[in-house]
Amino acid sequence: MEMRTCSTCTESKPLEEFHKDGKGGRKGQCAQCRNLDRKEARKVNPAPHITNRTPASERMRATAKALGITSEEFTTARMRPCEACGQEAGPDKPNTGMVNPETGTFAGTVCLSCAKGFAFLKKDPRIVRALLAMLDKHLLT
């Protein structure tokens, strides 16, 4: 029977009492000492493997980072009324972030309808201005 000395308790124990290390070998600490160490670590941090991160929250965090604001600022901004049409936002219908196409910085939040409209206008402020001028000239007089 092959024996190994534990790096923690310094006792000589059978190799089977050491966890595998994932590289074809065994850990230097016996299973009993390792379990005790992990038990103590759980007292300090009860659930290190559990996080509040979900795919949706990760997308929000990444979007906020790309916009140059914190995820808290982005979450708050998404619940404000649409900056274009004034439509109220809600938990089931949050607004989306808009980027200034000329500077690439966060420009505010708009409802999905306004965001789609801006996208259909190729996100080009010149086209938006031209459309408004055409509306003023022909439809709003």
Summarize the structure.
The protein is an alpha+beta fold. Helices cover 41% and strands 16% of the residues.
Description:
The chain is of the alpha+beta class and 141 residues long. The protein has two domains: 3-44, no CATH class; 55-138, His-Me finger endonuclease fold. 41% of the residues lie in helices and 16% in strands. The protein has five helices and six strands, in the order E-E-E-E-H-H-H-E-E-H-H. The chain has helices at 31-44, 55-67, 71-78, 112-120, 125-138, and strands at 3-5, 12-14, 18-20, 26-30, 96-99, 106-110. Strands 1-2 form a two-stranded antiparallel sheet. The chain has a two-stranded antiparallel sheet with strand order 3-4. Strands 5-6 form a two-stranded antiparallel sheet. Helix 2 packs across helix 3 (71-78). The longest helix has 14 residues, at 31-44. The radius of gyration is 29 Å and the shape is rod-shaped. It starts with a strand and ends with a helix. The relative contact order is 0.07. The model has no long low-confidence stretch (mean pLDDT 89).
Task: Outline the fold blueprint.
Layout: E1 3-5, E2 12-14, E3 18-20, E4 26-30, H1 31-44, H2 55-67, H3 71-78, E5 96-99, E6 106-110, H4 112-120, H5 125-138
Antiparallel strand pairs: 1-2, 3-4, 5-6
Helix pairs in contact: 2-3
Helix share, percent: 40-55%
User: How are strands sequenced across the largest beta sheet?
Assistant: 1-2
Under CATH, the topology of the largest domain is which?
A: His-Me finger endonuclease fold
Number of strands: 6
Main sheet?
2 strands, antiparallel
Number of helices: 5
**Rg over CA atoms:** 29 Å
Order of helices and strands: EEEEHHHEEHH
Give the CATH level 1 class of the largest domain. Answer: Alpha Beta
Oligomer: single chain
Structural category is alpha+beta
Output mean pLDDT: 89
The share of residues in extended strands comes to 15-25%
Q: Under the CATH scheme, which architecture of the largest domain would be assigned?
A: 3-Layer(aba) Sandwich
Distance between the termini: 97 Å
Low-confidence segments, given as residue ranges, are: none
Number of domains: 2
Globular, elongated, flat, extended or rod-shaped: what is the shape? rod-shaped
